[in-house]
Amino acid sequence: MIEYYPQQLSISAINREFQGLDLIDEDEVQRLQDVEDKKKRGKGAPKKAKSAGKHWQSYRLSLFC
After folding, report:
1. Is residue 52 in a domain?
2. pLDDT tens digits, residue range 31-54?
């Protein structure tokens, strides 16, 4: 089944294969810039919880109280 689909090429894969080319993936540069801008505005991804159980315990308590 895997052989049915052709191998997909990306700019990062080409850069890894041919290291002297130094091609720039404009979509990736734009995505990284957007992520940085969102973080500056406080709209980025939330930080990971330090302990997995703490959040769920408080959530369950709020449901049953």
Report:
1. no
2. 999 999 999 999 988 888 777 665
* DSSP string across 23-56: ---HHHHHHHHHHHHHHHTT-SPPPPPSSHHHHH
Separation between Cα atoms, residue 56 and residue 51, nearest integer Å: 10
Domain residues for the domain of 26 are: 1-35
Would 54 be classed as within a structural domain? no
Domain count, the chain: 1
pLDDT category, 3, cuts 50, 70, 90? confident
